[in-house]
Write a structure and sequence with these properties.
Strand content: 25-35%
Strand order of the largest sheet: 6-9-10-3-11-12
Bound molecules: adenosine-5'-triphosphate, magnesium ion
Largest sheet: 6 strands, mixed
Distance between the termini: 47 Å
Radius of gyration: 23 Å
Number of strands: 22
Shape: globular
Number of helices: 19
């Protein structure tokens, strides 16, 4: 008997069919993985179960009893807890309040019962003791937290519901390795307690580590369900992409071409796009490297060892406390992003909610701010602009209904593609990629990296920080491994192995 069963679920938004005949059966004590390309309907299916989206048709059964989930409150009463991909936190409220929302304990029905609140939150917070990071306390307000910490609060909120049915829609996209391991240990406990769980991720390593069964969704239809130990990655990807025969995920891990060309010693000084000497800033010191035109320079190491801060400093978004950045004989002060953009430096962040998306505004408007800055155009003919924008989003296979639609109407991964496409409209000289594929599906990742390699071959200088080892090993010509805010090791040529990467990342950690 399935704990939760859905059949014939459909949902359209205007002309977009988000779900067409969605079906799913989740057993108690199982982690049921949902896989599918960006925009295939995974989040929509979750929202139907959570009561935040009303389906046009379909049936939901809990313990074999038909139910009508008419809203989030009803879902909670039916024992459903949700982690939302785009998070559902109140930014001004504290960690403890968010964990206990929407059922804050009250005294006499009007005032929040602080003592009861603290006790209830403390139990959940304790689950992530030692991995939640600096500044993570029950009293901290959510808007003061880092992206990974906000994601932990959303996880805690779902866990605190103690619901028998739990949905996790991409809960790990901002977490570091230690946080993911802790979270998975908690999930294993919940499994042992017989909870039924839905888990969405685009990371194959996580899926095989925690999943029991997988259901693949393609274009709003559920294709089928398999036991994970009875299938393999290539088969799953084939189901995800359907007609395409070559599994696109395989392309992302192809080793870089022309390896002989990539050594720094083979290059003339005029090929240096950025010379960084003794750079210091928030959380890193003494960072020195040359970035060459035509290379993809990888930043590796455990999450949060200074990689992202270095990139944001080079982009002028964080202040520099020491060191120089030069190009040829010219010193680049890079005090603001505006200055960096004018110097041809681009920055793509995986944290689109903080750095990328202009919420509530049309897709076209989300694509064009950089274009305006670089071209210094106050007026451009809309048709020309739209043509350039179209080419940029097409290059990444972005799925959307029209430029005039609000960016919020796109699926998470498609929003991230818009953020990347923004930089492709006017080719920068230096492209800084800060874990850029968060939430992007396997096929689109492969497309993105194929594009990045083409840009590098055409002479662009690219820095790639990725929290996924396969992305680094498969695409970077050399890798600088960060540890404790310093570059500890450079891996080039045959040294670029998973073993060396792990070793350098963990040895002083
Ligand atoms: N509120 C909305 N208004 C209009 N269209 C929407 C809305 N929500 C979702 N869609 C569309 O429905 C489709 C399915 O979106 P959904 O968010 O379920 O995809 P997903 O599988 O979760 O993708 P991702 O992996 O990128 O998170 C997409 O084409 C999306 O643009
Ligand atoms: Mg989604």
């Amino acid at each position: 008997m399935a704990k939760l069963k859905l059949s014939g679920i459909s949902k359209t938004y205007g002309a977009t069919v988000a779900l067409h005949d969605g079906a799913l059966a989740v057993d108690a004590g199982d982690v049921h993985v949902l896989m599918g390309a960006n925009g295939s309907g995974k989040s929509t299916l979750c929202k139907v179960i959570a009561g935040s989206v009303r389906p046009d048709a379909g049936a939901v059964l809990i313990d074999d009893t038909p139910v009508t989930i008419s809203g989030p409150r009803v879902a909670r009463a039916l024992g459903i807890g949700v982690f939302y991909q785009e998070l559902s936190l109140a930014a001004r409220r504290t960690v403890a309040e968010n964990i206990c929302l929407p059922d804050l304990p009250m005294t006499a029905g009007v005032l929040v019962d602080r003592k009861a609140l603290a006790a209830r939150a403390a139990r959940t917070i304790a689950l992530f003791d030692g991995v939640a990071g600096d500044g993570f306390t029950a009293d901290a307000t959510v808007d003061s937290l880092r992206a990974d910490q906000r994601q932990l609060v959303e996880i805690m909120k779902a866990l605190a519901s103690e619901a028998p049915i739990l949905i996790f829609d991409e809960p790990t996209s901002a977490l570091d390795r230690a946080q993911v391991e802790r979270f998975f240990a908690i999930i294993r406990d919940l499994k042992a307690q017989g909870r039924a769980m839905i888990f969405i991720s685009h990371r194959m390593d996580e899926i095989t580590a925690i999943g029991d069964r997988v259901t693949v969704i393609r274009d709003g239809r559920t294709v089928g369900t398999w036991r994970l130990d009875e299938t393999d990655t290539a088969t799953i990807i084939a189901h995800m992409v359907g007609e395409r025969s070559e599994p696109p995920g395989a392309r992302a891990s192809r080793p870089p071409q022309d390896e002989t060309m990539s050594g720094p010693e083979a290059r003339a000084p005029r090929d240096i796009a950025l010379s960084v000497r003794g750079l210091g800033g928030s959380g890193f010191t003494d960072v020195t490297f040359d970035l060459h035109r035509g290379e993809i320079l990888g930043f590796g190491g455990l999450h949060g060892q200074g990689q992202s801060a270095v990139l944001r400093t080079l982009f002028g978004a964080l202040p520099r406390s020491a060191g120089d950045v030069t190009r040829g004989d010219t010193a680049l002060p890079l005090r603001t992003p505006r200055e960096a953009i004018r110097r041809g430096i681009a920055y793509v962040s995986g944290d689109r909610r903080r750095d990328g998306v202009i919420q509530g505004r049309p897709i076209l408007e989300n694509l064009t701010p950089i274009h305006y800055l670089r071209q210094r155009l106050m007026l451009a003919r809309p048709s020309v602009l739209q043509q350039k924008a179209q080419a940029a989003v097409d290059a990444l296979n972005t799925k959307f209904a029209g430029f005039a639609h609000a960016i919020d109407s796109l699926s998470g991964g498609n929003q991230q593609k818009v953020v990347i496409a923004r930089w492709l409209m006017d080719r920068p000289d230096v492209l800084l990629l800060d874990d850029p594929t968060k939430g992007i599906d396997l096929a689109a990742k492969a497309d993105l990296f194929a594009l990045i390699r083409t840009l590098a071959r055409d002479g662009m200088a690219i820095v790639l920080y990725s929290s996924e080892d396969a992305e680094l090993l498969g695409n970077a010509d050399r890798i600088l491994v960060f540890n404790g805010g310093r570059i500890r090791r450079e891996l080039a040529g045959a040294d670029r192995t998973r073993y060396n990467l792990y070793h350098a990342a963990y040895e002083a950690a």
